[in-house]
Design goal:
With 359 residues, the protein is of the alpha/beta class. The protein contains 15 helices and ten strands. Strands 7-6-5-8-9-10 form a six-stranded parallel beta sheet, with helices on both faces.
Length: 359
């Protein structure tokens, strides 16, 4: 995987949980970090990646995170003859929000070439499996391994506790909105702020958790937007949080909001459902598969008016939020655990490595 393995994004968290789970199942694993310049590697980064792959034993399964696939296609053309290559695709990089058309074409061509050398392709949702249809990946090579959720005992979230109340909270009590997402164009924070600006007359507070440094330009533009819309007193950007701090934010939330333009699964959405927090999000990518219809409200991506309408109705109706919360808690029981996800991931590697001495 490229960059720092401890990076707090959905893809890296998925990789880390699977690695930890495989170790518990008795697998021997090793992380090989590539330069952070992938999927647009510098010449030095490419030389290093070539050297790392050349040093690997041919009797192991080599899982390459999708962030590194584009850029490795020429290296894999050589190494796939002896290495058992497995591609892990969270979503096609060519579909990333804000990528120029020429760059998207380059990424798609590079991903297609790299995927041709994979003996197995693991994806994190049925939606991503379908999206790979344009990359000519044979369906028999694809395995879907959705992320798990943490099912440790928890206190009921604030949203869940609304169910036990017979009366709505006082009109002056602000509804607590939570957004958990790295601040990048794809996550749609700009759309969310535009929607909330239309709801200035309603009582709400927004907390955003997620890196504010990974895309400094996008965060700077967002800060400017907050000032322009006069929302400074009602919006908090907390940056990356540790597990305990993030748990406290989930517990205090009334609604989880995410205005993404694309999600290959949406782990933060699943975590909200697992905690019984109602969701307001979009219909982009795999989100309709991740968020049960009865546990949230979904609107078209990029439509701030539709998002404002959905949020406005729920801000005014504690009973509607309680019903969504109850449905979320019911759906949570059907979500896979990380143990289940890891066992499925391990099964997806069956038959990948050729027995010694075969060609």
């Amino acid at each position: 995987m490229p960059g720092d393995p401890s990076t707090s994004t959905g893809g890296y968290i998925y990789d880390g949980q699977i690695l930890a789970g495989l170790a518990e199942l008795g697998w021997r694993t090793r992380v090989h970090s590539l330069d952070a310049s992938f999927p647009r590697p510098t010449p030095a980064a490419l030389r290093d990646a070539r050297a790392q792959l050349a040093a690997l034993r041919g009797d192991s399964a080599i899982v390459i995170d999708g962030l590194a696939l584009a850029g490795l296609e020429r290296v894999l053309e050589t190494e796939a003859k002896r290495l058992a290559i497995v591609a892990l695709v969270h979503h096609p990089l060519a579909l990333e929000t804000g990528v120029a058309a020429a760059e998207a074409q380059r990424l798609e061509a590079a991903e297609r070439d790299a995927l041709a050398f994979a003996r197995r392709v693991i994806v994190t949702s049925q939606w991503t499996a379908r999206a790979l249809g344009r990359y000519d990946v044979p369906i028999e090579r694809i395995r879907v391994v959705e992320p798990g959720v943490d099912r440790r005992p928890r206190r009921k979230s604030r949203a869940a506790r609304v169910v036990t109340r017979t009366l709505a909270p006082p009109a002056a009590e602000a509804v607590r909105l939570l957004c958990v997402a790295t601040i990048t164009p794809r996550k749609g924070h700009t759309v969310l702020l535009e929607a909330l600006a239309e709801l200035r007359d309603r009582p709400w507070q927004l907390t955003c958790a997620g890196s504010i440094t990974r895309d400094a330009a996008t965060f700077a533009a967002l800060e400017h937007q907050v000032e322009r819309l006069a929302l400074r007193a009602r919006v908090r950007f907390l940056g990356d949080l540790d597990a305990d701090a993030l748990e406290r934010e989930y517990e205090s939330a009334d609604l989880f909001v995410l205005a993404s333009y694309l999600e290959g699964y949406g782990m933060a959405l699943a975590e909200a459902v697992a905690r019984g927090v109602p969701v307001v999000s979009t219909t982009a990518g795999a989100i309709p598969e991740t968020v049960p219809a009865a546990a949230g409200v979904l609107v078209p991506p990029g439509d701030s008016r539709a998002l404002a309408k959905a949020l406005g109705s729920l801000l005014e109706d504690a009973g509607a939020r309680a019903r969504l919360a109850a449905s979320a808690r019911a759906a949570a029981r059907k979500l896979p655990t990380w143990r289940m996800a890891t066992e499925k991931f391990a099964a997806a590697l069956d038959g990948v490595v050729r027995p010694a001495g075969t060609r």
